[in-house]
Amino acid sequence: MRMPGNATWTAASETDPELACPVSPVVDIVFSRWTTPILWTLNTHGRQRFVELQRHIGRVTPKVLTQRLRQLERDGLVVRTYHPEVPPRVEYEISDLGRSLAPLFAHLAEWAADNLDKVEQARHDYDSDPAR
Asked: Could you say which of 4, 28, 36, 79 has the lowest number of CB atoms within 10 Å?
């Protein structure tokens, strides 16, 4: 990985937004609308059938959940297991790659517990400022 002081890295980062912020591709993969709740649920509750997963997550539509699960499977973060029974059964579980995100989620949960009230206060202060 090139460090920011490297002239080649600096020139490339000015033309390629992903190089300007190397975590952007990770954010795009992991933090899209329903990805985080899906990964959190699978990590917390283990292997789930589609309906169980939908029940744990809440307001997600079946269409969107299907799309997100397919993308997560494609990205290697979720494993889909098809059981050829009557009726057929499909289960989803977090992969080892997906599980490797657990420390990141733990840090974010800790940050949220420590700071979301500060964010809410900052928003309140900003919104109630008559000069805005």
From this structure: 4
Amino acid at 13: S
Exposed (0-12), middle (13-18) or buried (19+): which is 77, by Cβ within 10 Å? buried
User: Is the backbone peptide bond immediately before 88 cis, with ω within 30 degrees of 0?
Assistant: no
Work out the average pLDDT over 80-99: 95
Mean pLDDT across the stretch 14-29? 76
CB atoms within 10 A of CB 69: 21
The pTM score is 0.75
As given in the structure block, the two tokens for residue 39 are 């990964």
How many other C-beta atoms can be found within 10 angstroms of the C-beta atom of residue 13? 17
Domains and CATH numbers, the chain: 7-97 (1.10.10.10), 101-132 (no CATH)
